[in-house]
C-alpha cells in the first residue's frame, strides 16, 4: 500500500499508520494510528477548542439542508430513504418511549419519529441546531454534557454518524450507558474502514474525513471498545446507501472530473455486492444493550 508503513518498536508492537489529508477543507495532513482496542485514531487530534473550525463550511451537508448542486440533491434524497431505514431498525426494538438523538444535526430523524417517541436532540453546532428547531417544537440543546440527565432516563439513544466525531470518547461512552435504561437500546452508526470502498480508495476514502472524524471503527474495534463498559452488540445492520455517497465523494477527492459521479456509483454498487458475502458494508449500524 502506497501510503502505509509499519512502525516497529523495541517491544515488537506494530502500529499501522496511514497518511491522510483533509481534502474537504484545509488540506492539512494527518495520520491514523491503531490503538489497543483496534480503533484507528486521527493524529494529531485538534485541540477541542479548535475543532469547530473544521466544520465552518457551507458545503458541510450534514449541518445544512442545502440543495445547491446535483450532489446536494442526491444526498438529500438518500437521506429521506435512510430515515425510513433508521425507523425500521428503531422500531424493531422499541415502538415508543423516551429517545435521545446525540448529534441530531438538522433534526430530520427527530422530526421523522416524533409521533412515536418523546424525543430530545443534542447538537453542538448552533447553525444545525437552529435548522432543527425550525422544523419542530422538539427540545434541541447545544449542551453536550450528559450530566444534565438523570440515571436511566432514555429507552433509546441514537448516534447516527456521530461517535467518530466525539473528542472525549471514553467520558461520553460512560455517560451514554449511565443514562440508558436497563432494558434500553443504544444505536450507533459509523463508517467501516474494512469495507471494499475503503480498501479501494485508501487515503482518498472520504469517510476517513480527517480531522472531523477522530476515531475509525471496525466490527472488532466496536466490540472491544464497548466490552469495557459492559455493553454488548446484539445486531449489526448495513447502511447501503452510504457506499454511493462515500464513493462519489472519494472519486472527487482522487481525480475530480465529469466521470466522478458514474465511477462513484459503480464502486458503490460493487462495494455493496461484495459486502453481501463479507458483511463489511461502507457504514454499519450497531445495536447495543447492557450486559445482564
Radius of gyration (CA) equals 19 Å
Largest sheet: 7 strands, mixed
Q: Looking across the biggest beta sheet, what order are the strands in?
A: 7-6-5-8-9-12-11
Tally of helical runs: 8
- Low-confidence parts, pLDDT < 50 over ≥5 residues? 1-14
Terminus-to-terminus distance: 43 Å
Strand share of the residues? 25-35%
Mean pLDDT: 89
Kindly state the percentage of residues in helix. 25-40%
Shape: globular
Q: How many β strands by DSSP? A: 12
Structural class: alpha/beta
The secondary-structure element order is: EEEEHEHEHEEHEHEHEHHE
Give a verbal description of the structure.
- The protein is α/β, with parallel strands linked by helices and 292 residues long.
- The protein has eight helices and twelve strands.
- A seven-stranded mixed sheet has the order 7-6-5-8-9-12-11, sandwiched between helices. Strands 1-2-3-4-10 form a five-stranded antiparallel sheet, with no helix packed on it.
- Strand 2 and strand 3 form a beta hairpin.
- Helix 7 (242-255) crosses helix 8.
- The chain is globular and about 50 Å long.
- The relative contact order is 0.14.
How are the SSEs placed, and which strands pair?
Blueprint: E1 4-8, E2 14-21, E3 29-34, E4 40-43, H1 70-93, E5 97-102, H2 108-113, E6 117-122, H3 126-135, E7 139-141, E8 154-160, H4 169-179, E9 180-191, H5 196-201, E10 215-216, H6 219-227, E11 231-238, H7 242-255, H8 260-278, E12 283-290
Parallel strand pairs: 5-6, 5-8, 6-7, 8-9
Antiparallel strand pairs: 1-2, 2-3, 3-4, 4-10, 9-12, 11-12
Amino acid at each position: 500500500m502506497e501510503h502505509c508503513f509499519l512502525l516497529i518498536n523495541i517491544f515488537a508492537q506494530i502500529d499501522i499508520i496511514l497518511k491522510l489529508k483533509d481534502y474537504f477543507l484545509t488540506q492539512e495532513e494527518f495520520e491514523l494510528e491503531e490503538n489497543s482496542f483496534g480503533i484507528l485514531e486521527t493524529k494529531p487530534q485538534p485541540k477541542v477548542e479548535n475543532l469547530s473550525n473544521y466544520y465552518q463550511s457551507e458545503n458541510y451537508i450534514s449541518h445544512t439542508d442545502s440543495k445547491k448542486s446535483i450532489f446536494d440533491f442526491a444526498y438529500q434524497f438518500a437521506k429521506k430513504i435512510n430515515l425510513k431505514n433508521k425507523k425500521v431498525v428503531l422500531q424493531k426494538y422499541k415502538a415508543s418511549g423516551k429517545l435521545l438523538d446525540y448529534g441530531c444535526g438538522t433534526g430530520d430523524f427527530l422530526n421523522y419519529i416524533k409521533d412515536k417517541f418523546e424525543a430530545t436532540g443534542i447538537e453542538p453546532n448552533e447553525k444545525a441546531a437552529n435548522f432543527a428547531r425550525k422544523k419542530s417544537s422538539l427540545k434541541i440543546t447545544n449542551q453536550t454534557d450528559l450530566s444534565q440527565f438523570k440515571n436511566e432516563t432514555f429507552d433509546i439513544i441514537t448516534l447516527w454518524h456521530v461517535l467518530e466525531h466525539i473528542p472525549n470518547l471514553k467520558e461520553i461512552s460512560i455517560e451514554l450507558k449511565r443514562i440508558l435504561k436497563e432494558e434500553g437500546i443504544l444505536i450507533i452508526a459509523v463508517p467501516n474502514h474494512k469495507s471494499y470502498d475503503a480498501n479501494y480508495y485508501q487515503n482518498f476514502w472520504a469517510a476517513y474525513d480527517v480531522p472531523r472524524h477522530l476515531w475509525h471503527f471496525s466490527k472488532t474495534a466496536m466490540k472491544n471498545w464497548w466490552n469495557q463498559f459492559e455493553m454488548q452488540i446484539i445486531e449489526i445492520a448495513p447502511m447501503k446507501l452510504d457506499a454511493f455517497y462515500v464513493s462519489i465523494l472519494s472519486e472527487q477527492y482522487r481525480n475530480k472530473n465529469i466521470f466522478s459521479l458514474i465511477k462513484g456509483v459503480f464502486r458503490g454498487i460493487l462495494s455493496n455486492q461484495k459486502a453481501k458475502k463479507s458483511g463489511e458494508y461502507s457504514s454499519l449500524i450497531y445495536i447495543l444493550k447492557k450486559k445482564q
